[in-house]
Amino acid sequence: MIQTIEASPDEIYDIELEHSLLEANARLAKENRILLDGHGITGIDIMGAIGSGKTTLIGRLVAKLKDRLGVAVFNGDATTSSDADLIAAQKVPVVQIATVNGCHLDANLVAKALRKIDLDGLRLIFIENIGNLICPAEFPLGSKARVVVVSVTEGQYMVRKHPHMFLGAHLVVINKVDLAEAMNVSVAQLAEDVRILKPDIKVIPTSCKAGTGLDEVAAELLAI
Amino acid sequence: MHEFSIASSIVESVLEFAAKNKIEKILEVRLLVGELMAVEWEQLRFCYGAITRETAMENSSLEIEQVEAAVSCPYCSYRGRPKYWEDALAAFPIVTLQCPQCGMAAESTQGKECAIKTIRYMA
Ligand SMILES: Nc1nc2c(ncn2[C@@H]2O[C@H](COP(=O)(O)OP(=O)(O)OP(=O)(O)O)[C@@H](O)[C@H]2O)c(=O)[nH]1
Ligand SMILES: [Mg+2]
Ligand SMILES: [Zn+2]
Question: Per residue in B62-103, pLDDT tens?
Fold first, then answer.
């Protein structure tokens, strides 16, 4: 990798660029946010590991809320449309967002999705990010709240292993608590780990299977 | 793998700059990466090497400077380095947003950068 070009020092130049690589996305995210705010819509970015229960949680929340207020869902599934189909069965607007690299959604993709639906009358848009605990943290989408869904099946130390994800989150949902005992995982300890990272964060344990904690999540999201 | 997105974005920006200024050979790109960014440096270098092949950036070196995290606390007005989670038994030091002075929720003021600082080229 060593460069062996013959050059006298006066032919080599250094230039200060100070060019931010995340700025383009941040700017688009801000535009999305302005558009959403203008329509009185709260965008909610749902992040979390593969299989933590993001789709199931969104489906449960949609079922609870859709008769009371306008709800839409953006689904960033990398490969299939099975996730989107599941929610579309509830007769709410769903946009499937296919990513190029299967890594994370970005503000540009969300902007395109926003152009696909009628925003009038909507109150909430759930944006399911790609199942990935590392990438999405750096790419804001323009949502008002970022929710991280972790599940007890990811083990006792998953918060410590992926601290970055939690630093930018507004709400953490610890899902699949019905399996906590079988997994030998302490939900209280997981919640404590999150609070060590970010003391003011709200942590809500849920079981999408048993239906526990879901009313609390819905109330929290509507209060944002 | 957001390292790929970041590497692509570096290469795109630098090549655009090079084309505009008629620069034929880029020797080095210096990046600033914040401590709060989950960027894996080795992966970033790997992607960079792959994407720059057969461009004006081929064989250029990618230098990465870390920008330390800093926080400020709205409760006790502490400003400075963050508190680290010492006993997390993790492979790397974990930055928290807990105020080192009063334990309440602090806000990050530095450490989320991801920017090209300088480039070195031959003209
Ligand atoms: N026991 C139990 N299973 C759950 C719970 N929530 C979700 N699951 C199951 O976990 C599996 C994964 O759920 P999904 O909602 O598809 O997870 P996801 O996070 O959307 O997954 P990806 O989009 O693939 O990343 C499914 O089989 C769900 O039925 C829960 O609270 N308890
Ligand atoms: Mg899903
Ligand atoms: Zn303080």
Answer: 999 999 999 999 999 999 999 999 877 777 789 999 999 999
Crossing angle of helices A214-223 and A54-65, in 10° steps, is 70
Token pair for A47? 């992040």
CB < 8 Å to A199, chain B: 97-98, 103-105
B78 at A interface, C-beta within 8 A: no
pTM: 0.89
Q: Mean pLDDT for chain A?
A: 88
Instruction: Provide the ipTM.
Output: 0.81
Q: Do residues A187 and A205 make contact, with C-beta atoms less than 8 angstroms apart?
A: yes
Domain boundaries, chain B: 2-122
Q: How far is Cα A135 from Cα B1, in angstroms, rounded to an integer?
A: 7
Q: Which domain range does residue A73 map to?
A: 2-222
Measured in Å, residue A52 CA sits from the centre of ligand 1 at: 5
Span B2-122 CATH architecture: 2-Layer Sandwich (3.30)
Domain count, chain A: 1
């996305």: which residue's tokens? A25
The CATH number given to whatever domain includes residue A8 is 3.40.50.300
For B40-104, the DSSP string reads -HHHHHHHHHHHHTTSTTTT-EEEEEEEPPEEE-TTT--EESPPEEGGG--SSPEE--B-TTT-S
Is residue A54 within 8 Å of A46, Cβ to Cβ? yes
